[in-house]
Design brief:
The chain is an alpha+beta fold and 97 residues long. The protein has 2 helices and 5 strands; from the N terminus they run αβαββββ. A hairpin with a 6-residue loop joins strand 2 (44-50) and strand 3. The protein starts with a helix and ends in a 10-residue tail after the last strand.
């Protein structure tokens, strides 16, 4: 899990230019636990992407009826994932592409 957290911090710092290290604790779970939680919330995978180096895989889960969402980062083997954001009022901003 520490590798996931470190990679998230590195990715975030490279985007903004000036690098600053911040320790963050993220809730991380086994894939089976995540699958059950997404089922309970009625959320299904909507998008998937990965880091250029393949170190992390990102998935966004969405419930189209309630508009709840969860963004997660997974290790490449998909055995563990960490919640990097969750909320309500999901909507598409640009549907032209």
């Amino acid at each position: 899990m520490k590798k996931i957290i470190a990679a998230l911090l590195l990715a975030a710092s490279s985007v903004v230019g000036a690098q600053e290290t911040v320790n963050v604790t993220l809730p991380c779970f086994k894939a089976d636990t995540i699958k059950q939680a997404m089922t309970n919330y009625g959320e299904t995978a909507l998008t998937i992407g990965k880091e250029k180096d393949g170190s992390l895989v990102y998935l966004m889960f969405v419930n189209n009826k309630t508009r709840t969402w969860t963004m997660m980062a997974f290790q490449p083997d998909m055995k563990y994932g960490c919640v990097i954001g969750a909320g309500v009022d999901f909507r598409f901003v640009n549907t032209g592409t």
